[in-house]
Design a protein that fits this description.
The chain has about 475 residues and is of the alpha+beta class. The protein has 17 helices and 15 strands. About 5% of the residues have low confidence.
Length: about 475
């Protein structure tokens, strides 16, 4: 168990309302996150012997080279900095040092398994986006074991900061009166713009897959396993050639280190029961399809495996049968014989929405509202021209979780046109803003108080700044 003892030289975790929510594509989000990781690792990688000091917080220095490295990396990655970087960057670093000092005093403990899982997920994301382990090492200018070590340190420190902030703000909970007061007092120009949103219901049916097709898939997997177990072929080669999990096939089926909770339950059980890296598991059935698994390495409660995934194909006849069945369901609803809610409960095979009267839930926001881009592509295409109350004709879609074909009908429950956030339509958004503002006040006040108990020194040439906090008054 890791206890927060060290002070961070490059973490930048803090509460702020200054930014507004914007929509950017997944690739942009990845490289923005990558930029901040690069900035943090650059600071942590410094050899601080005989370096020039810009700031001192307590007995922890902030070196000029650390600040410069972070600034140059921000320029390289085009990460915007709100203000003079030679003021903003060291102040962020100083604030983090205050939180980490408090984490040390409070003996905040970090569960290594949680941090390790986050590190492996991040490395897997880097590999997926940059193309290979070698390219990741080239990008970060260090071997993967060293990168893993640095990320582990960085995420441990970030966790400590977040724990201190969470403890400070744990009692913040806005009442309806608080939310109304906040909404009435806030500048309406500060309210975010909410794009077009919709609320939908869905009924899905998974076409019946003939047993013969399932038997053929299993036979292929048994053949692959026999080839590996006999030494005839490498598991990774077969995965590249035949696995239908495109996200891992390009890496020879390798999943990267994952915790049990991240893996599908059936997959996790089989994987964690493997002991011999030269032998292949029996066939494992999950919602995703049929797998065979090979153990690469196990580290405590995390495991790295290879797998080959095959999905039985749905025949055209089975798809047509499912379409016809849902067409009858739709006709019954339109005729008033049954409601959509009733049919969703008794007919739908969608686990996530069936017991919620068919209402689709947004996993990102935990609400029933979706922006159009957040919907499965086929659903978005169907409801684009529908009016509230309309029910689509049956259509074939790919289940975003299992990647299998299914047949669905959707009902457009509500359409909320794009608008400035308002109390009536967007209460939860306003509530979140209200609570975030209160948390920011608490953290700001805490930093001001913490400054008084910690030695602060800022070198000449680094003081002519408009800081968020009054460091010069508290420092020497």
């Amino acid at each position: 168990m890791f206890i927060c003892l060290a002070l961070c030289s490059a973490c930048t975790t803090f509460v702020s309302l200054k930014g507004t929510k914007t929509k950017i594509d997944v690739k942009s989000r990845f490289f923005t996150a990558l930029a901040f990781v690069m900035m943090a690792l650059a600071g942590m990688a410094q050899n601080n012997v005989a370096e020039e000091v810009a700031w001192v917080i307590g007995d922890e220095p902030i070196f000029k080279s650390e600040i410069e490295e972070q600034y140059q990396q921000a320029l390289y990655e085009r990460v915007p900095i709100d203000g003079n970087p030679y003021c903003v960057i060291p102040e962020r670093m100083a604030i983090d040092k205050l939180f980490l000092d408090q984490a040390r005093i409070d003996t905040v403990e970090v569960q290594p398994s949680a941090i390790s899982s986050e590190v492996e997920n991040r490395i897997n994301l880097f590999i997926a986006n940059l193309g290979s382990k070698e390219k990741v090492e080239e990008y970060f200018r260090m071997p993967l074991p060293r990168l893993r070590e640095k990320l582990n340190e960085m995420y441990s420190e970030q966790y400590c900061i977040q724990q201190v902030q969470s403890e400070l703000t744990k009692n913040v909970k806005a009442t309806p009166a608080d939310v109304r007061r906040f909404y009435n007092n806030i500048s309406k120009d500060s309210l975010p713009y909410i794009p077009l949103q919709v609320e939908t219901q869905i009924i899905t049916i998974n076409p019946v897959i003939p047993q013969q097709e399932i038997d053929e898939v299993k036979a292929r997997l048994r053949d692959y396993a026999q080839q590996v177990n006999s030494g005839e072929r490498e598991f990774s080669t077969l995965a590249i050639l035949y696995s239908q999990d495109q996200s891992t096939a390009v890496y020879g089926g390798e999943t990267g280190f994952q915790s049990r909770s991240v893996l599908l339950p059936e997959y996790a059980t089989a994987a964690f029961n493997l002991n011999d890296s030269k032998r292949v598991s029996n066939i494992v059935e999950t919602d995703d399809g049929y797998h065979i698994i090979q153990l690469i390495e196990r580290r405590g409660d995390r495991i790295n495996t290879r797998h080959i995934l095959l999905r039985p194909k749905v025949s055209d006849k089975d798809l047509i049968d499912a379409v016809n069945r849902l067409d009858s369901v739709r006709n019954d609803i339109i005729a008033g014989n049954k409601t959509f809610d009733e049919m969703a409960l008794f007919v739908s095979q969608d686990k996530d929405s069936r017991n919620n009267n068919g209402h689709m839930l947004n996993e990102n926001t935990h609400s029933s509202r979706f922006e159009m881009a957040e919907l499965p592509a086929e659903v978005g295409k169907k409801i684009r021209d529908m009016q509230p109350g309309d029910i689509s004709e049956p259509f074939v879609m790919i289940n975003p979780k299992t990647r299998r074909e299914q047949v669905a009908i959707v009902k457009l429950v509500k359409r909320i046109d794009g608008h400035k956030a308002d109390l009536a339509e967007d209460y939860m958004i306003i509530k979140d803003m209200c609570e975030a503002a209160e948390k920011e006040k608490i953290i700001h006040k805490w930093v001001e108080q913490k400054q008084k108990s910690v030695y602060v020194y800022i070198e000449e040439g680094w003081r002519n700044c408009e800081f968020e906090y009054d460091w010069l008054k508290t420092g020497k």
